[in-house]
Protein backbone atom coordinates (compact mmCIF):
# COMPACT_ATOMS: atom_id res chain seq x y z
CA UNK A 1 0.00 0.00 0.00
CA UNK A 2 1.28 3.45 -0.89
CA UNK A 3 1.74 5.45 2.30
CA UNK A 4 3.05 8.74 0.95
CA UNK A 5 2.36 11.04 -1.96
CA UNK A 6 4.52 10.15 -4.97
CA UNK A 7 5.63 13.77 -4.88
CA UNK A 8 6.75 13.47 -1.27
CA UNK A 9 8.54 10.22 -2.04
CA UNK A 10 10.41 12.02 -4.80
CA UNK A 11 11.43 14.79 -2.40
CA UNK A 12 12.60 12.16 0.08
CA UNK A 13 14.64 10.52 -2.67
CA UNK A 14 16.44 13.82 -3.08
CA UNK A 15 17.29 13.68 0.62
CA UNK A 16 17.42 9.92 1.38
CA UNK A 17 19.02 10.40 4.75
CA UNK A 18 15.79 11.84 6.16
CA UNK A 19 13.17 9.40 7.45
CA UNK A 20 10.71 12.21 8.07
CA UNK A 21 10.87 15.24 5.83
CA UNK A 22 11.53 18.43 7.77
CA UNK A 23 8.77 20.96 7.36
CA UNK A 24 8.63 24.37 8.97
CA UNK A 25 5.47 24.71 11.03
CA UNK A 26 4.09 27.76 12.88
CA UNK A 27 3.70 27.09 16.59
CA UNK A 28 0.17 28.10 17.57
CA UNK A 29 -1.73 28.16 20.83
CA UNK A 30 -5.28 28.91 21.81
CA UNK A 31 -6.15 32.22 23.37
CA UNK A 32 -9.44 33.21 25.02
CA UNK A 33 -9.28 36.55 23.19
CA UNK A 34 -8.15 35.28 19.81
CA UNK A 35 -9.20 32.13 18.02
CA UNK A 36 -5.61 31.40 17.03
CA UNK A 37 -2.56 33.45 17.93
CA UNK A 38 0.75 32.79 16.21
CA UNK A 39 3.63 33.35 18.60
CA UNK A 40 6.70 32.20 16.70
CA UNK A 41 7.91 29.80 14.04
CA UNK A 42 9.91 26.69 14.92
CA UNK A 43 11.43 23.92 12.83
CA UNK A 44 9.50 20.76 13.58
CA UNK A 45 9.98 17.24 12.27
CA UNK A 46 6.68 16.24 10.71
CA UNK A 47 6.14 12.61 9.80
CA UNK A 48 4.52 12.76 6.39
CA UNK A 49 2.50 9.65 7.24
CA UNK A 50 0.27 12.11 9.10
CA UNK A 51 -0.71 13.51 5.69
CA UNK A 52 -1.68 10.10 4.33
CA UNK A 53 -5.17 10.08 2.84
CA UNK A 54 -5.44 13.88 2.79
CA UNK A 55 -5.75 16.31 -0.09
CA UNK A 56 -2.75 18.62 -0.17
CA UNK A 57 -2.52 22.14 -1.56
CA UNK A 58 0.98 23.25 -2.56
CA UNK A 59 0.91 27.01 -2.07
CA UNK A 60 3.53 28.82 -4.17
CA UNK A 61 3.82 32.41 -2.96
CA UNK A 62 6.11 35.20 -1.74
CA UNK A 63 5.80 38.12 0.65
CA UNK A 64 6.97 40.69 -1.91
CA UNK A 65 3.99 40.28 -4.26
CA UNK A 66 0.78 42.05 -3.28
CA UNK A 67 -1.44 39.39 -4.85
CA UNK A 68 0.06 36.82 -2.48
CA UNK A 69 -0.49 39.16 0.47
CA UNK A 70 -4.12 39.51 -0.62
CA UNK A 71 -4.79 35.83 -1.29
CA UNK A 72 -3.13 34.38 1.82
CA UNK A 73 -5.89 35.55 4.26
CA UNK A 74 -8.50 34.14 1.86
CA UNK A 75 -6.78 30.76 1.84
CA UNK A 76 -6.30 30.99 5.62
CA UNK A 77 -10.05 31.30 6.12
CA UNK A 78 -10.85 28.39 3.78
CA UNK A 79 -8.16 26.26 5.44
CA UNK A 80 -9.59 26.96 8.90
CA UNK A 81 -13.12 26.18 7.74
CA UNK A 82 -12.09 22.88 6.15
CA UNK A 83 -10.15 21.95 9.31
CA UNK A 84 -13.24 22.58 11.43
CA UNK A 85 -15.28 20.39 9.09
CA UNK A 86 -12.68 17.62 9.26
CA UNK A 87 -12.38 17.59 5.48
CA UNK A 88 -8.83 16.20 5.36
CA UNK A 89 -7.09 19.12 3.67
CA UNK A 90 -3.53 20.27 4.29
CA UNK A 91 -1.49 23.11 2.80
CA UNK A 92 2.28 23.28 2.28
CA UNK A 93 3.86 26.67 1.56
CA UNK A 94 6.54 26.69 -1.15
CA UNK A 95 8.31 30.02 -0.84
CA UNK A 96 9.73 32.38 -3.45
CA UNK A 97 10.86 34.88 -0.81
CA UNK A 98 14.15 36.74 -1.08
CA UNK A 99 15.72 35.67 2.20
CA UNK A 100 15.15 33.71 5.41
CA UNK A 101 13.88 36.74 7.35
CA UNK A 102 11.25 37.50 4.69
CA UNK A 103 10.24 33.84 4.61
CA UNK A 104 9.89 33.71 8.41
CA UNK A 105 7.87 36.91 8.52
CA UNK A 106 5.46 35.76 5.79
CA UNK A 107 5.15 32.21 7.12
CA UNK A 108 4.15 33.53 10.55
CA UNK A 109 0.88 34.68 8.97
CA UNK A 110 0.10 31.10 7.90
CA UNK A 111 -1.24 28.23 10.05
CA UNK A 112 0.10 25.51 7.76
CA UNK A 113 3.37 23.76 6.97
CA UNK A 114 6.15 24.94 4.67
CA UNK A 115 9.10 23.54 2.80
CA UNK A 116 12.07 25.01 4.72
CA UNK A 117 13.54 28.08 3.03
CA UNK A 118 17.01 26.51 3.21
CA UNK A 119 15.84 23.53 1.13
CA UNK A 120 16.34 25.22 -2.22
CA UNK A 121 16.59 21.93 -4.14
CA UNK A 122 13.13 20.79 -3.07
CA UNK A 123 11.57 24.19 -3.71
CA UNK A 124 13.06 24.25 -7.20
CA UNK A 125 11.96 20.69 -7.86
CA UNK A 126 8.34 21.45 -6.90
CA UNK A 127 8.31 24.64 -8.97
CA UNK A 128 9.64 22.82 -12.04
CA UNK A 129 7.54 19.69 -11.47
CA UNK A 130 4.31 21.69 -11.61
CA UNK A 131 5.56 24.27 -14.13
CA UNK A 132 4.81 27.23 -11.89
CA UNK A 133 5.05 30.39 -13.99
CA UNK A 134 3.34 32.87 -11.69
CA UNK A 135 2.36 33.41 -8.07
CA UNK A 136 0.22 33.00 -6.10
CA UNK A 137 -0.43 29.46 -7.29
CA UNK A 138 -2.22 26.63 -5.48
CA UNK A 139 -1.68 23.13 -6.86
CA UNK A 140 -4.07 20.57 -5.35
CA UNK A 141 -3.08 16.91 -5.03
CA UNK A 142 -5.57 14.17 -4.20
CA UNK A 143 -5.29 11.62 -1.35
CA UNK A 144 -3.30 9.25 -3.58
CA UNK A 145 -0.92 11.92 -4.86
CA UNK A 146 -2.75 12.44 -8.14
CA UNK A 147 -2.86 15.94 -9.61
CA UNK A 148 -6.38 17.28 -9.05
CA UNK A 149 -6.12 20.95 -10.06
CA UNK A 150 -3.61 23.66 -10.86
CA UNK A 151 -6.32 26.34 -10.56
CA UNK A 152 -6.61 26.31 -6.78
CA UNK A 153 -6.28 30.09 -6.40
CA UNK A 154 -9.13 30.79 -8.80
CA UNK A 155 -11.32 28.07 -7.27
CA UNK A 156 -10.75 29.25 -3.69
CA UNK A 157 -11.49 32.87 -4.66
CA UNK A 158 -14.63 31.90 -6.55
CA UNK A 159 -16.14 29.16 -4.38
CA UNK A 160 -14.37 29.31 -1.02
CA UNK A 161 -14.44 26.10 1.03
CA UNK A 162 -17.24 24.76 -1.17
CA UNK A 163 -14.64 24.01 -3.86
CA UNK A 164 -13.21 21.12 -1.80
CA UNK A 165 -12.05 18.55 -2.90
CA UNK A 166 -11.36 20.63 -6.05
CA UNK A 167 -12.12 17.77 -8.46
CA UNK A 168 -13.59 18.41 -11.92
CA UNK A 169 -16.78 16.67 -10.76
CA UNK A 170 -17.15 19.00 -7.77
CA UNK A 171 -16.50 22.10 -9.87
CA UNK A 172 -19.10 20.93 -12.44
CA UNK A 173 -21.63 20.68 -9.58
CA UNK A 174 -20.82 24.22 -8.44
CA UNK A 175 -21.07 25.59 -11.98
CA UNK A 176 -24.52 24.02 -12.33
CA UNK A 177 -25.59 25.44 -8.95
CA UNK A 178 -24.48 28.89 -10.12
CA UNK A 179 -26.34 28.50 -13.40
CA UNK A 180 -29.56 27.69 -11.55
CA UNK A 181 -29.06 30.59 -9.13
CA UNK A 182 -28.43 33.07 -11.95
CA UNK A 183 -31.46 31.82 -13.90
CA UNK A 184 -33.77 32.53 -10.94
CA UNK A 185 -31.93 35.65 -9.79
CA UNK A 186 -33.76 38.74 -8.54
CA UNK A 187 -32.37 42.01 -7.21
CA UNK A 188 -33.92 41.42 -3.79
CA UNK A 189 -32.42 37.93 -3.66
CA UNK A 190 -28.98 39.38 -4.42
CA UNK A 191 -28.95 42.23 -1.92
CA UNK A 192 -31.10 41.16 1.05
CA UNK A 193 -29.65 39.28 4.02
CA UNK A 194 -31.27 38.00 7.22
CA UNK A 195 -34.27 40.27 6.95
CA UNK A 196 -32.27 43.35 5.89
CA UNK A 197 -34.19 44.59 2.87
CA UNK A 198 -32.66 48.02 2.39
CA UNK A 199 -29.61 49.87 1.11
CA UNK A 200 -27.93 52.95 2.55
CA UNK A 201 -28.46 56.44 1.13
CA UNK A 202 -25.93 58.41 3.20
CA UNK A 203 -27.71 57.87 6.51
CA UNK A 204 -31.17 57.02 5.21
CA UNK A 205 -32.48 53.55 4.41
CA UNK A 206 -33.93 52.86 0.97
CA UNK A 207 -36.09 49.77 0.51
CA UNK A 208 -34.83 47.29 -2.07
CA UNK A 209 -38.34 47.20 -3.49
CA UNK A 210 -37.75 50.80 -4.67
CA UNK A 211 -35.00 49.53 -6.99
CA UNK A 212 -37.06 46.78 -8.60
CA UNK A 213 -37.74 47.58 -12.27
CA UNK A 214 -34.64 49.77 -12.59
CA UNK A 215 -31.30 49.13 -14.26
CA UNK A 216 -28.90 48.83 -11.32
CA UNK A 217 -25.11 48.91 -11.33
CA UNK A 218 -23.43 46.97 -8.52
CA UNK A 219 -20.20 48.86 -8.01
CA UNK A 220 -17.40 46.82 -6.41
CA UNK A 221 -14.78 49.26 -5.18
CA UNK A 222 -12.56 50.11 -2.20
CA UNK A 223 -10.39 52.75 -0.53
CA UNK A 224 -7.54 53.39 -1.22
CA UNK A 225 -7.40 52.23 -4.84
CA UNK A 226 -6.19 54.66 -7.55
CA UNK A 227 -8.09 52.92 -10.42
CA UNK A 228 -11.23 53.02 -8.25
CA UNK A 229 -10.82 56.74 -7.54
CA UNK A 230 -10.42 57.43 -11.25
CA UNK A 231 -13.40 55.35 -12.33
CA UNK A 232 -15.63 56.64 -9.51
CA UNK A 233 -15.26 60.16 -10.94
CA UNK A 234 -16.16 58.89 -14.42
CA UNK A 235 -19.13 56.90 -13.14
CA UNK A 236 -20.35 59.85 -11.06
CA UNK A 237 -20.47 62.02 -14.18
CA UNK A 238 -22.41 59.37 -16.12
CA UNK A 239 -24.72 58.83 -13.13
CA UNK A 240 -25.50 62.56 -12.91
CA UNK A 241 -26.19 62.81 -16.66
CA UNK A 242 -28.54 59.81 -16.64
CA UNK A 243 -30.37 61.09 -13.54
CA UNK A 244 -30.77 64.46 -15.24
CA UNK A 245 -32.45 62.68 -18.16
CA UNK A 246 -34.72 60.81 -15.70
CA UNK A 247 -33.38 57.45 -16.82
CA UNK A 248 -34.26 54.53 -14.55
CA UNK A 249 -30.67 53.95 -13.43
CA UNK A 250 -29.25 53.44 -9.95
CA UNK A 251 -25.86 52.44 -8.56
CA UNK A 252 -25.22 50.47 -5.36
CA UNK A 253 -21.73 50.50 -3.85
CA UNK A 254 -20.52 47.05 -2.77
CA UNK A 255 -17.54 47.68 -0.51
CA UNK A 256 -14.37 45.62 -0.79
CA UNK A 257 -12.85 47.64 2.06
CA UNK A 258 -11.17 45.87 4.97
CA UNK A 259 -12.67 48.09 7.67
CA UNK A 260 -15.65 50.36 8.19
CA UNK A 261 -13.56 53.56 8.32
CA UNK A 262 -12.28 52.98 4.77
CA UNK A 263 -15.83 52.10 3.73
CA UNK A 264 -17.21 55.37 5.09
CA UNK A 265 -14.41 57.40 3.51
CA UNK A 266 -14.95 55.69 0.16
CA UNK A 267 -18.74 56.02 0.25
CA UNK A 268 -18.50 59.69 1.20
CA UNK A 269 -17.16 60.45 -2.31
CA UNK A 270 -20.12 58.74 -4.04
CA UNK A 271 -23.54 60.23 -4.91
CA UNK A 272 -25.38 56.87 -5.02
CA UNK A 273 -26.54 54.12 -2.68
CA UNK A 274 -24.52 51.49 -0.81
CA UNK A 275 -24.94 48.16 0.90
CA UNK A 276 -24.42 48.54 4.67
CA UNK A 277 -20.87 47.52 5.57
CA UNK A 278 -20.64 43.74 5.80
CA UNK A 279 -17.30 42.37 4.60
CA UNK A 280 -18.44 38.74 4.55
CA UNK A 281 -21.62 39.46 2.55
CA UNK A 282 -19.82 41.73 0.08
CA UNK A 283 -17.12 39.16 -0.61
CA UNK A 284 -19.75 36.44 -1.08
CA UNK A 285 -21.44 38.71 -3.64
CA UNK A 286 -18.07 39.26 -5.35
CA UNK A 287 -17.58 35.49 -5.55
CA UNK A 288 -21.09 35.07 -6.96
CA UNK A 289 -20.22 37.39 -9.84
CA UNK A 290 -16.63 36.09 -10.07
CA UNK A 291 -15.20 39.58 -9.54
CA UNK A 292 -11.48 39.32 -10.29
CA UNK A 293 -10.45 42.94 -9.82
CA UNK A 294 -11.70 46.30 -8.66
CA UNK A 295 -13.24 48.50 -9.76
CA UNK A 296 -15.93 46.28 -11.31
CA UNK A 297 -19.41 47.39 -12.34
CA UNK A 298 -21.99 44.60 -12.72
CA UNK A 299 -25.17 45.68 -14.50
CA UNK A 300 -28.49 44.19 -13.34
CA UNK A 301 -31.47 44.67 -15.66
CA UNK A 302 -35.03 45.73 -14.71
CA UNK A 303 -35.98 42.02 -14.49
CA UNK A 304 -33.29 41.35 -11.87
CA UNK A 305 -31.10 39.33 -14.24
CA UNK A 306 -27.44 40.08 -14.99
CA UNK A 307 -27.03 42.13 -18.17
CA UNK A 308 -23.22 42.35 -18.17
CA UNK A 309 -20.23 42.28 -15.84
CA UNK A 310 -18.37 44.67 -18.16
CA UNK A 311 -20.06 47.87 -17.01
CA UNK A 312 -16.73 49.55 -16.30
CA UNK A 313 -15.45 48.96 -19.84
CA UNK A 314 -18.73 50.09 -21.38
CA UNK A 315 -18.80 53.30 -19.32
CA UNK A 316 -15.19 54.04 -20.27
CA UNK A 317 -15.94 53.39 -23.94
CA UNK A 318 -19.33 55.01 -24.37
CA UNK A 319 -20.09 57.05 -21.21
CA UNK A 320 -23.87 57.45 -20.68
CA UNK A 321 -24.55 56.29 -24.25
CA UNK A 322 -23.91 52.73 -23.02
CA UNK A 323 -27.18 52.81 -21.03
CA UNK A 324 -29.10 50.47 -20.70
CA UNK A 325 -26.05 48.27 -21.50
CA UNK A 326 -28.04 45.73 -23.50
CA UNK A 327 -26.78 43.85 -26.56
CA UNK A 328 -29.14 45.89 -28.75
CA UNK A 329 -27.74 49.18 -27.43
CA UNK A 330 -24.15 48.02 -27.91
CA UNK A 331 -24.92 46.91 -31.46
CA UNK A 332 -26.38 50.36 -32.23
CA UNK A 333 -23.28 52.02 -30.78
CA UNK A 334 -21.03 49.80 -32.88
CA UNK A 335 -22.92 50.75 -36.03
CA UNK A 336 -22.59 54.42 -35.05
CA UNK A 337 -18.83 53.99 -34.52
CA UNK A 338 -18.46 52.30 -37.89
CA UNK A 339 -20.18 55.24 -39.55
CA UNK A 340 -18.12 57.85 -37.67
CA UNK A 341 -14.86 56.06 -38.52
CA UNK A 342 -15.43 56.86 -42.20
CA UNK A 343 -14.68 60.52 -41.42
CA UNK A 344 -11.22 59.75 -40.03
CA UNK A 345 -8.06 59.58 -42.19
CA UNK A 346 -6.69 56.09 -42.82
CA UNK A 347 -3.37 57.13 -41.25
CA UNK A 348 -1.55 60.15 -39.84
CA UNK A 349 1.90 61.04 -38.54
CA UNK A 350 1.53 61.24 -34.76
CA UNK A 351 3.62 64.15 -33.47
CA UNK A 352 4.14 62.83 -29.94
CA UNK A 353 4.80 59.23 -30.95
CA UNK A 354 6.96 60.10 -34.01
CA UNK A 355 5.48 57.18 -35.98
CA UNK A 356 2.70 56.84 -38.51
CA UNK A 357 -0.51 55.53 -36.91
CA UNK A 358 -2.91 53.49 -39.03
CA UNK A 359 -6.68 53.30 -38.67
CA UNK A 360 -7.72 49.76 -37.67
CA UNK A 361 -11.01 48.12 -36.78
CA UNK A 362 -11.72 45.00 -34.74
CA UNK A 363 -11.72 43.05 -38.00
CA UNK A 364 -8.42 44.49 -39.24
CA UNK A 365 -6.14 44.19 -36.24
CA UNK A 366 -7.94 46.17 -33.57
CA UNK A 367 -9.42 44.76 -30.38
CA UNK A 368 -9.47 45.48 -26.65
CA UNK A 369 -6.68 47.92 -25.71
CA UNK A 370 -5.62 50.63 -23.29
CA UNK A 371 -5.33 54.01 -24.97
CA UNK A 372 -1.75 55.27 -24.70
CA UNK A 373 -2.99 58.88 -24.64
CA UNK A 374 -5.72 58.89 -21.97
CA UNK A 375 -5.04 55.50 -20.31
CA UNK A 376 -8.68 54.48 -20.71
CA UNK A 377 -9.98 51.27 -22.24
CA UNK A 378 -10.73 50.97 -25.93
CA UNK A 379 -12.33 48.40 -28.18
CA UNK A 380 -12.47 47.99 -31.95
CA UNK A 381 -11.62 51.15 -33.87
CA UNK A 382 -8.26 52.68 -33.03
CA UNK A 383 -5.16 54.34 -34.40
CA UNK A 384 -2.35 51.83 -34.10
CA UNK A 385 1.40 51.77 -34.69
CA UNK A 386 2.00 48.41 -36.32
CA UNK A 387 5.69 48.54 -35.43
CA UNK A 388 5.51 48.97 -31.65
CA UNK A 389 1.88 48.42 -30.66
CA UNK A 390 1.17 52.04 -29.67
CA UNK A 391 -2.63 52.38 -29.78
CA UNK A 392 -5.03 55.26 -29.14
CA UNK A 393 -8.71 56.15 -29.41
CA UNK A 394 -9.81 57.84 -32.63
CA UNK A 395 -10.91 60.91 -30.67
CA UNK A 396 -7.55 61.06 -28.88
CA UNK A 397 -5.82 60.98 -32.25
CA UNK A 398 -7.99 63.81 -33.53
CA UNK A 399 -7.49 65.89 -30.36
CA UNK A 400 -3.71 65.38 -30.55
CA UNK A 401 -3.65 66.37 -34.20
CA UNK A 402 -5.72 69.51 -33.56
CA UNK A 403 -3.50 70.44 -30.62
CA UNK A 404 -0.28 70.12 -32.66
CA UNK A 405 -1.87 72.10 -35.53
CA UNK A 406 -2.87 74.85 -33.11
CA UNK A 407 0.67 75.15 -31.77
CA UNK A 408 1.97 75.64 -35.29
TrEMBL record:
The keyword Oxidoreductase applies. Its EC number is 1.8.1.8. One of its GO terms (molecular function) is protein-disulfide reductase [NAD(P)H] activity. SUPFAM superfamilies: Cysteine-rich domain, Thioredoxin-like. It comes from the Eukaryota. Residues 12-176, 178-338 form the Thioredoxin domain. Keywords: NAD, Oxidoreductase, Repeat. It catalyses: [protein]-dithiol + NADP(+) = [protein]-disulfide + NADPH + H(+); [protein]-dithiol + NAD(+) = [protein]-disulfide + NADH + H(+). It is an enzyme of class 1 (oxidoreductase). The keyword Phosphoprotein does not apply. Belongs to the nucleoredoxin family. This is protein-disulfide reductase.
